[in-house]
Structures are given as structure tokens and as C-alpha cells.
# Entry
Amino acid sequence: MALTFCHSGLKTSPSPRFEAVKSALVIDDDPIVSNVLVQNLQEAGWSVHEANCGEDGLRLAREKEPDVIICDLLMPRMNGYQFCREIRNDEKFSPQPRIVVISCSNYATDREGSLAAGADDFLTKPIKSTELIHILSQESGTTFFRKPTPDLPGITLADTRVFSQMVGSNTRVRFWGVRGSIPTPGPSTMKYGGNTTCVEVRADGQLIVLDAGTGIRQLGRELMNEFQSQPIFCHVLISHTHWDHIQGFPFFMPAYDPKNHITVMGYEGARQGLQATLSSQMESPYFPVSMQQMPSNLNIEETSDTEFHIGPIEITAFFANHPGVCVGYRLDTRQGSIVFLPDNEPHSRLRMAPNQENAQSLEVLEYARKEDEKLIEFIQDADVVIMDAQYDADEYKSYIGWGHGCVDDVVALAVIANVKKLYLFHHDPDHDDAMIDRMEEWANELVANHGGTTVVEAAREGVSCVIEPAH
Ligand SMILES: [Zn+2]
Ligand SMILES: [Zn+2]
# Structure
């Protein structure tokens, strides 16, 4: 509206107001909702069209070209997402109409999905007419209604100090998930457990979680119980993003508490970065909460260095022989060293196998020997080594080149490297407790045959191991 002022400051009559009637299209399969909306809009001076399904709505939208479309999310034949995409991809609409998606529920993932599909606004039923009219009277859309996020408490030195004291300085390892490939709950896996990879390490006041398989769920619950109102500061080191190593993360309770600080570290995968890979398993078709909605202070760090520190703990990463980008971690703490190599196939036997191309050529065998030497160096003199020993020697013949270890090789490497304690890890989903018992027994026989001193145990859910300080 144009207002003009004369030089004397007295207001002259404003120019006449001509405002075209705006049009709206209401699409909802519930006539009660639809009638209320139509009535409210008409009372506010809108010209309104109505449809009771997405398909009819789309046809009407093309015919009437309304200024605003109010569209239900869940409707038969064409839902609100599909409707938004159809409109946004149709060049006929220029300018594009404003789209308000309405829904019975207030799930954040539905709001985000609607906005991603092209909606400008998202409202939860029952729709308050004042709210709707207010939104429609605004200049532009995209008024995404978020729950107000509480002010996040800043990190204080006192918080981290108290946490470190609670964690303690002793070096401890605890197994929360020891299984490879897929969770295997059930009576035949009661002893060793069915959760996929997750190991907790506490040392030098630091809490480090190795991999985020399904075992991380129970770890998260116990951490919340233990630390209560004290903020948790933890690092999650990811060996690789195969599903058995990350699938528990969406269920890690500390990540849902704004007072906690979680840093996830790992290496870039072949096709997309660590952040994209981790968050994709939480996208809407697979999970109801996106990673961006996890309210903790969550920091994803894709690293390229193979040596770094977490507090005083020295971390060294080692590229494993496994499909894709996969690492093992060595943690040198003040009280001792721990190696975590959950998925790895030693080279020598792989290269000696008769079905391998160029097998047994001296050059190939020499290469394999050198690669295994690197591994020996990586685990040399470690107090605890947690290593992939998925198969026994017989089974291994059928799984050569799959990227997993055979117990005979893993034991030999550990003995040569003077490892104090070896945990057989990444148990095969087809191995029941009795089979793992036999593998553990066989492994200790092998150590004796090699004249070694390494103590071998099959990793078991719930078991802890404390590294005694060297005197
Ligand atoms: Zn695995
Ligand atoms: Zn893997």
C-alpha cells in the first residue's frame, strides 16, 4: 500500500487498495479436517479449492494454479512427500506455490522429510486457524517449526576433571560385542554372546569405545547409569563402516543427552565420507531419528593421520587386509598396550592358497611375508591383542580372500610378536559356544606347540581384563 506525505507532514489520502483474492488448495482425505480448513480460509478472504486425495489434488493444482497448497502427509495413492516432489519438479508452476504439509503426528523425521521433499512449512493437526493464517500471511515460507533446543552447557574444566577421575587411570578392557557379521542371540550363543563388535577401553582418565556394533547399546545404558548427571566425554574409534561395526550407534543412549560430548573417529570409506556413511543408516526409510537430531555434542572426525593422541594415550592405526578401508588401532597407555584388529586376513596363507593367482611364486610369497611382518611389528609386545580369528583352518579353505583370519595364523603371529594375551575375536555367526570353546582350546595347544607364552582366550561379552601396571 502506498502512503504519501505532503511537505507539511499532513497525511494525504492513501491510494486505493486493490488486492487480488489469493487462492488456496486444501488436500486431505479427512472431510472434518478439510471442512475446518476451508471455512477458516474462506473467512480470512481466500478463494479455496478442495481435493480428497493426492492425485485429485495434483490435477486441481495444475488446473487452478493456487498460491498456497495445504496438503495432508498420509493419504491413499499419493502421499504428501510424493505430492510435494511432483509440484516442485513441474515447471508449469512459475512461481511455485507455497506448500504447507499437515500431519497427525509431530515426528521430526516427518517434518524433515516434508521439507526435503519441497514443503515450505509443516504443521501438526489439529491445525489452529490463527497459526495457519499467520503462516500464510508471511512473505515467504520455510518456517520449519523446531522444538526449541535447550542451551547446551559449555564444557568446564571441572566437568572433564571429574569425569577423568571417575574413569580412573587403570587400563581396562571390556567386551560388549564380540560377534562378526550379524547379531546372533539365542541359546547356542549364551556363553560368548551374540552382539556385534564393541569393546570399551578405560585408561589414563579416558573412555574409548572401539567400534559401534550392537554391543554399544548395553554399554550406553550402563554409562548413563554410572555417570548420571555427570557429562560423559568419550571417543568412539571406528575400524570400518561395515554394518556389524556401526549398526548399534543409533541406539547409543549417551548420544541422546545434550550434556554429553562424543567424538566419533574413523577413516574415509571408498564411496563417501565417514559422516555420510554413519548418518545414512539413520535416514528416514531405515530409522526414525536422524543423526543430526541426536542432541549430544556429537563430533564426527574423519582422520587421515595414522598416529594421534587421545589425552595421554598414543593411538596408532594400521590398515588391515579387509575389503574397503579398514583399520586396526593400537592404544599405548601408561600402563600397557592394547591392539584392536577386528577384521583382518593375514597374508601368508592367503597367498599360499592353491587357488590364488601366481600362488607360491617367490615374489608373491615374499610380499606376503613382508606384509605379515608389518602386522607383527604393529602388535609387537602388546599386553592385549583383540584379533579377528573367525575361522578354523578347515573352514578357512572355503573363505580364502574374504578378509577374515584363521585361528592358526592369528596364534602364530601373536606368539612371534610376543603378545601377552590374545583374544580370538569376530566370532563367526555360525559358531555356537561349543565350537568357540574348541577353537580356544586348539589355540592354546598351538601356543604350546610353538613354545610360546601367549595366553589365548575367546573374547566373551561382559568379560573385563585389567592390565596390571608393570613394576
Ligand atoms: Zn566385521
Ligand atoms: Zn568388515
Observations:
- The first helix runs from residue 31 to 43.
